[in-house]
Each structure stands twice: as C-alpha cells, then as structure tokens.
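Appendix B. Extra example for self-study. Work through it before the problem class; the solution is given directly after the inputs so you can check yourself.
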Amino acid sequence: MGRFPIGKPYLIPIQASEVKLFLSILLQITSSRRSKLLSYGQNRSTQSQAMKNLCRSFFYLFFLLPCTTFAQKDALIEAESFIDKGYWVTDPQFVQQMGSSYLMAHGMGIPVKNASTKVAMPAKGKYHLWARTKNWAPGNWDAPGQFQIAVNGQKVNHVFGKIPNWTWEYAGEVQLRSKELNLELIDLTGFNARCDAIYLSKIKEAPPQGGTELVEWRKKKLREPLAPETTKTYDLVICGGGISGCAAAIAAAEKGLKVALIHDRPVLGGNASSEIRVHTLGIYGKFERILRMIDTEHYPNGSPEAQKDQEKRDRNVQKYTNIDIHYNWRAYNAVADSGVIQYVDAQHTSNGKRIRFKAPLFTDATGDGWIGYWAGAEYSYGRESVHKYGEAWNKWGELWSPEEADNFVMGSSILWRTEVAEQAQTFQAVPWAVTVAKEHKATAGEWYWEFSRNDLHQIDDGEEIRDHLLRAIYGSFSNAKQQPGNEKYRLQWVSYLLGKRESRRLIGDHVFTFNDVVNHTQFPDSVVVETRDIDVHFQRNLQDEENPDFLSEALFYKTKNYYIPYRSLYSRNVSNLFMAGRCFSCSHIGLGGPRVMRTTGQMGAAVGFAAAICHKYKVQPRAVYEKHLQEYMGTITAQQVIKP
Amino acid sequence: MLRGIGVGALLSRLVLLTSLGLVLLYSSSIELAKNAPLHMAMPQEYARVVHEKMVFTLPGTDSLLQHQVWLLSDAQQRPLLYCSDVITPVCIDGLCKPMYITLYWNLVGHYVGYGVFQDNLLTKFDHEAFTPTDYAKLHTLLLDQHSILERKTMADLFDQSIAAKEKITFNGEEVDAVSGATRAEIKESVVEGALYSCFTAWHLAHGNIKEQIEQNLLTYYDATLAETFLGSPAEDYQLFALKQLDQNTLVRLLPQVQEIFNRTSPGIRLYILKKLPKELWKDEKISQSFFQTFAGVDINTRTLLLNNLKYAHPSVVNSLVNDLEQMSKNQLSTFLNYLAENRQLLNGQVKAKLVQIAQNKSFTENYIIETFLKSN
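Solution. Structure tokens for the complete assembly:
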C-alpha cells in the first residue's frame, strides 16, 4: 500500500557511483543514518555542535567535493523530517493514500511559525525546485492553504498550494552559493497549507506525480533497503495506542509478556487523546482497575480537560517496564505466511527510520483494521443487508438496516471549540469554506459534526473527509461571527485528526450483531459486558437534502446488559491475530453500541489476558477458547474483584 | 432519580393519581375525534374525519395506565389518522401531577399533532399556563423524531447533583453547563419550565406506538390505500408503500415510482434505486428516465446511479457525459473506469466532450479526465 515516508533530508547523487560508494563507506564507518551526517542544526551542546561542524567540514572536504564534478545531482527532503517544525504539525493520517506523512500549517486562520531545516548539498550552483503539495479546497477563490519556501533566507518567488490534488509544484531555479542549504516553509494563510516533500535537482525533470511510479521513484531516491534496518522481537505486538491498544498492553504486561505498543501519535489514547478529545463512554465491565488508568472524565467533548487525562494515561502505561511504547511509529505492512503473521513493519512518522516487529502474537488495535487488511484477514465494510444477520428494527427500517447492503457507514468527526476574548476578534473571509457550511452557523462543535457519504471511503478518502469537516467548521464559525454578539469569539482549538467511528471490521469466529443485544445472549466466553444503547448514526441530509451534509442524527435502541464473546476478538483466518477496538468482529449495527471507548477498552484488556494464555501454552488465539477457556475466564472474572 | 420520597409513597401517589385521572377522563362523555388538534401537521386529513374505531390499547410509560388508540376514518370508512387521549403522571422530585393530552399519529405511526383538554390545559411545573408559543414549541418538539429526549432518561433530566464544570455559550449567551452542547440542545428543544412534560409527551408520541400502528395498518392495507400512499406527498407513506411492493407490482407501477423518485428525499431515492430489478436497467427508456435526473438529484443518489451504470442501457453515457462537472472525484473515476472497460462507447461525441471538460480549468477535477485521455 503506497510508499512510506523517509525521514531526514537526503542527498542522492544520480549516476555518480563513486560518490555512492563513498557514502556507503561513510555509513558503515559511522553506523549512523546518512541524513544525520548530511544535515545539522539539531539541539546539541556547543561542544557536540563544534564536533559536528568539524565532521561536516571533513565530510565536505573529503567526500562531497568530488560530487561537484558531476552535473547531475539532486536532493529529496521530506518535510516531516524538518529539524525545526515551527508550529507546522506532522500529519501521518493519510500515508497509505497520498504516500507520506506531511507537514501542515494548522493555524486556524493565523499563519503559523516557519518550519526550517538545514541540508548539506553535494554542490553549490543552480537547482530546480519542486515541492509536493496540494490545494485542499480548490474553487473560484484564493486557495486556502498557501505557503512559500525560503532558500538560504531568500523567499523563492512562487506561492505553493494552488493546484488541486497532490502535485509536485515547480518553483523555478534557485542559486546556491554554498553547499549549505537552509530551507524554510513560510505559511501565508494559517489555513492548513501542506507540504509533503521538497525536491531539488540540477535537471529540470519533475518527479512522478503519484501512483506506483512515485512510490518507486521515492524508494529509488531514498535507496530504501528491502527490509527495515532494525528487527525487534516481542511476545506480543500491538498496533494502535488508542484505549483498546493501551488496555491490551497493560493486561498482557501484567501477565509478564514483553509487549510492543506501536502508535503513530506522540500521545496515547486515540479518540480519547488530548489531540481528538472524545470522552470515554460505556461501562468498565470486569476491567475497572485497568480502564481507570487510561479513560477520561465525562467532560464535554473537545474540552481541554482532556489534557489531564492524557497525562494520567501516558504516565500509567509508561510505568510498565515491559511495554515498549513506540510513539510516532506507524505500521505500514504486515506479512503473513499460511495465515500466520510473521512480522509487522513500522516507520517513524518524522525521521523515517524503520523497524521490523516480530512476535508470535499480534493485536490489531488500529481502528481501521490495517494489520488484518495487510495480512489477508477477512473483513467487512458498510451496512449489511437486513437479511444477512436478521437485524431488522421496523421502527427505523431502512435507516437502521437496509434491504440491500450498501457502503454507508457512520462518519468521522472533528471536534472544535471557541473562546470569548476580551476584545473583538476578526476572522478572515473563508469563501472556500462557506460553500460547505452554507447558511449554518456555530460557535462550537459536538459529536454530531460528522461526515460520511456513499462515494467516500472512511479510509481511502480520509483526507477529503477531514478537509470537508475543516471547511464546515471554518465556514460555520465565519457565519456565526457575522451575528451580532459574537464579535469577541475566536477559535480556541480545532483538531486536525479525524475521530473515526467505523471503517473495516475484521471477521472473527463470532460476528457480534444486533441479535446478541436484543437477546442479551450470554456466551461461555463473554468477556465484555455493556449496557449502553445501540447508537447508530446516519447523515441528516438523507432525510432532507437541505440539511448540512456534515451533521448526523443518532438512532437509539435502549437495552439492558449485552455481552461480547472472546471469539469476536480474534481473526477467523489469520491465526495469530487478535483485534480490539472498533475493528472487532461485528456487523454495522453490532458496532453501534460497543464502539465507545470503555467498551473497546474492555476488549483490549480481554485480548491482553488471552495473549498471556497463548504465551503460557504456546498456542494461538482460537485455542484459548477451545482448550483453555476455563482458565481464561477465571483470569477475566478475577479482574472484577481487584479494586482500583 | 426520585428524591425526597419513598418508593412506597410514590407508588401510592401514582395509583391515586391514576385512579383520579381515569375517573376524570372516562366520566366525561367521549364523542367523536376526542379533543380536536391544537396543532396538526395533516389538517386536510383531520378535516375529513367522520368515524372512529378503537383498535388497540397502548401501555403508558409507567405501565400502570392503558391508553385506547382510535382509528379515525372518513365518510367512506377510509382510514385517515390514529389518536389517543392520554393521561399520564409527570413527576419531579417525588411530586407528580397528571398531564392530559390527545395525541395524533398518521397511518404509519408518526406523530402529526396534539390536542388539549379544555378543562385541563397544559401547565408548566410552576403551574404557569402554557402560552401559545409554548404550545407551538411542544408541537415542533413532538414532530422531531430524533429529539435529544430520545437518548435521555428521566434520571438524566432529574439529576441536578452534577456540578457544572464549564459554561457553554452560544451567540454570546450562556446556555447551559455540565455536558456542553448536549444540555444546550435539550434546552433549545423543550418548553422552558416544562421539561418533564415534554419528555413524557415525546416518549408517548414516539415509543412503541409506531410499530403497533404499523401492525394495525397491515390488517387493512390494500391496493386502494397503496395507491393513496404512493400518490401522497408524505415521504413516510411513500416509503411504506414502496416497501410493500413486490417486484412485479413495482414494474407495473414504474411510472408512479419514477414520479416519486423525482420529488422525494434522498433516502427514498436510494431505496428505489436499490429495489429496481437490475434487468429493468437494460431498457433504454427506463435507464434514460433515471439517468437524466443526474444533475438534479443529491450526491448520494448520483453515486448509486453511477453504481448501476454497468446494468444500464449504454446510451446513458451520452447524457451523463454532459454532467461530468457535477461529479465528485470518485464518481468521475467510476464513470471513466466504465468507459475504459467499454471502449466502444468512447465515440466522437463523448471524446469531444471529455476533451472540452479536461480543458476547463475552473473544473477542479479536470486532471482526472486529462489523465484518462492520455491513456485512452
């Protein structure tokens, strides 16, 4: 799936085998990443900086100078690897779609501080300059996300961000008077300008615009080896550090397993994190002690109070010495042989390093079911036909469960909030956003700011969905600002991370459905219990197309206790794969209740304890149900008497 | 959460109130059409009511009361509406008082109006009488099938113990606290000072009644009523009728179904497109009649139309090519992929139009067509 970002600034001399040889020798000598030698400016002590400068001079003198004899040279610099990101944010959400993490100027209308980096070029002279970027809201208006690039302090006379779709925009030639290159990204608008990478070349030949051509080109430019540089081995590898992933890690770690927790953000919690700020709902079931370590208070969605719970969560998971938390690492591949996952590969979202994670057991807590998807696990997406599992509820008919299956799913949300300043605040005109918001006015968001459409896939089209929600927010706020009494409002916080509700659902030995709720089915392997209503959303514009397309309604089926069996928490055809979180084995309606985070946390904890049984007997997840159920359920039941 | 009163005392009070209420209710003479609606979304139907017939009883929210549900019909005994006189206790902090209201539903069980008892008008909890604005707001609330009251319990509304954690404002005014916009949404949707009456009435109007009315409807639903429903502007009638159609009848009534498609909501359009037998799409006239609506229908319907392209008569390509600028990126890809797989349809006219749109710089997705043309 796509290419994967590489980190530090890179120099790749083209058709210069001698230089490549020198570089590889240098690499071996230093056992370090090439880019570290080719760039500088990181926070170091004066002493180490001096040493570094010395090394750099040495490097230039003895290795790079020969490069100047070759006319054809280029450099590919990944934006997310910039040494100083200023207030640009790293966005790794859409790597599998557009090819890389990227930097984004998420300033809510106020241009953000410049991002900058330094690169040692192979030669001075003229270079052609491209940046890969995108006009994320094209139309008959000025593009919202515009930026410039400064080269050695001089702004390049080109404004980026005006072309729809991810594109290498050509900015013309730049003259480098020395081999030291200072690059800056200068945000011009504050409205989500984005830069994936910068490419400088002596030859005016644009890189491929996309697809497999671009993937291959980048691999070649970055000289990515086939396998990651490092391999690590664990008892259990968990991908996704949301509430379910954290709970799984804690449960397994408490049973003595050596756990890797791979998470593509700098903080744990996923939708509950201080970056997305959805409060946790649902009950604790048998896992109150574990879940209290990582859940949230019931503050309003979007509240900054999320920060307090964030600190609690990170602190509590970090205290387990046998959990290796890999913050800012994103899995990009899982390889299975005969239905058994051999390893998961992950890449750092900024520096591009790669690690291969090996383990006998894996847990997919990615939400989007990525590990299962890559490993060939069966999965479902969309709404099943009402006949498939018999999930009819006449009260809501087609809105609940359609006669014919379709690809509607519950949508994604972006939470946001405002504050009242002491003085009147201006907010610039946003014609590119008002076309989405139309007449809608708002000064705060809530759960029902949600977007789903049947031509958009919640994973494949995630960036478009996120951008549509940003336009809805900025446009609705701009409209509200026109109302008397709202002069002092300003945006305080707008998330740029999608809070997803539904995407791929991996299929296990049991598919949890509406019937399990209606019948309150008790299973021999009931490991999760919930009382929350089944709560399924649909877009308001399906009932009345005059409604904004970014608002949803909820349908509620009130119920008493219902149970999720352990058999819904492992893949039916990838034998060493657990799943926890919204990608557990369920139907669209089945997901409606247990998709909230205390419930998914219960799933995680149940998976963690199951992994311990697997580890103890050297068996795979299904055997826990078939051969060790009594012991497993004993472990689960014992949890409820351990008080926090 | 009833505080300040024991369960036993509460039950006694409820029984007393129930008895009193029932005596009051049924000692008065009940004539035709109960209390006339004060607010009614289907006034023409109500104006034709001549007959009434008790059809079933509806358990009250507290299960102590049973409410009779009546079917109202016209002079020719054609069914029009359902209604029920309701007396129900409304309680707060252990104090209960009866609420009297006549609720009206349409034939598929959706609330359409309510009437009041002239000798027991609605009051707020401080006994202040409802104003005309309050009555109108109650009707608006009851018409909202997805009111926030659906997902709240009485206990949620009673629980005053939760300390406000932050203030939420809208238009510069503080609107509520505790759980942010959720509480604000409650306040916006209910009659101020009558939250519990609103809650009680909403749950009566939208509880199990819909399913019971639908079951009753099916006992007399016939071809005449089907025709009425299909011709009705009420979308819930259209959908009910469409769902009852078998495929043969659907084909027979296709012109009428197409007429509904042209004027109804996106959700029902999607239902129609899914229900159409795939072989029907082969018919050029039928295909054209649906695809020519492309530019005028909502984006979700367009997606489903394009998903049916593989079943449709090939001639629709010639009209669809004029709607390319209405398509989203993914819709455009669906259309172009279809063309790539059916290259014989890429005639001069279609290609010329593609070239023209590819050159239209104000169409933001033109690069997709450009790419397509390069490889085709």
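Self-check: Chain A has 18 helices and 30 strands. If your reasoning did not lead you there, revisit section 3.
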